[in-house]
Amino acid sequence: MREIEQQTLEEIMIEQHEELTPSQRRLADFILQNPYEAALMSSLKMAERLDVSEATVVRFAQNLGFDGYPALREKLQDQMLHVVRSSERVATMVSEPTENSGTLYEVVAQTAHFLNQLLENVSERDLQEAIDRLDGARQILIFGEGAPGSLVHHAEFWFSRLELQVKPITQTGRRFYDHIFQVKEDDVALVLAFRRPTSEAMALLEVMDERKGQSILVTDLLNSKMHALATQVITVRRGPMDTFRPLGPPTALIDALILGLMRKKGEEAVHGLRRLDDLRQRYQVLYK
Asked: What is the pLDDT of residue 86?
């Protein structure tokens, strides 16, 4: 059996991810997305939750180097005891709200939990690396579909105000390819892809790779076909895969990129926004 005592469960799963079956990868993603819930689940409950056989759960644990599922769960429980924080204690109550809680409480608790994970998963160095890529781009292609599509427009609004050339993409199907067929070597793609690799996200990452451009993949997946194609991967977890998942964590990341770009540009950003205000004042729409 491999020596796994000194590794975190996340490190073990990342190391072994390519050797796991698709069903076992779903198990890995679920555990990393829902560590507190998973730490209390038996192998049978885990199997029922993810619609796999209990034997699959057992083999999954063994493939990671454990004697069986109980040893994996014990490892997870031990980790949870060492990382409990106030926001996480609140988040554990989300699935069983008290009579004094409500919808707002649930959303805030879950968001707080995954914002805390964002701080653990993304370092300031990771953030600065993404900021430098975006700032040096000829053009930034921002892609997201579904709910994350709203973040595409949010990022476009502020990136454009910072005088960056931005191409927002929220379409899928035939129209999607109208936006990417002319990408060039000095372009950067910011790809928001959650839950699963989509054909559009894969296509954009592949085209960027072929054209020698750069790409930043923002995802909640531990590993996927997209990861190997991206120049940089930023992990942002939003919540359980089968429930409503707030956009708080990915919004925080986008806002951090915006603020980081503002600070990097410094007086250049201030002068650009002043020119915008001057133009509005000239046509008497500054305060309208």
From this structure: 42
CA distance 258 to 154: 10
**Residue 128 and residue 21 share a domain:** no
Report DSSP state, residue 283.
T
* Domain extent at residue 101: 86-113
Residue 180 structure tokens: 């990417």
| Run of H or E residues at 31 | helix 22-33
If one counts the domains in the chain, the total is 3
Q: Where are the beta strands (DSSP E) in 35-154?
A: 140-144
Q: Is 288 a domain residue?
A: no
Q: What is the pTM of this model?
A: 0.73
Whether 169 and 267 share a structural domain? yes
Supply the pLDDT for residue 138: 96
Indicate if 134 and 274 belong to the same structural domain. yes
Residues 136 and 274 in one domain: yes
Return the ∠ at Cα 243 (arms to 254 and 235), rounded to 5°: 35
Pick from 1, 2, 46: nearest CA to 24: 46
In a domain, 1, yes or no: no
Is the Cβ–Cβ distance between 241 and 257 less than 8 Å?
Answer: no
Which of 241, 274, 245, 216 is closest to 51 using CA atoms? 241
Q: Are 7 and 33 in contact (CB under 8 A)?
A: no
Do the domain assignments include residue 2? no
Mean pLDDT by 10 residues, the chain (288 residues): 69 83 89 82 93 94 92 86 52 52 79 87 95 97 94 96 95 94 96 91 97 96 88 87 77 96 90 85 76
Sign of CA dihedral 54, 57, 62, 66: negative
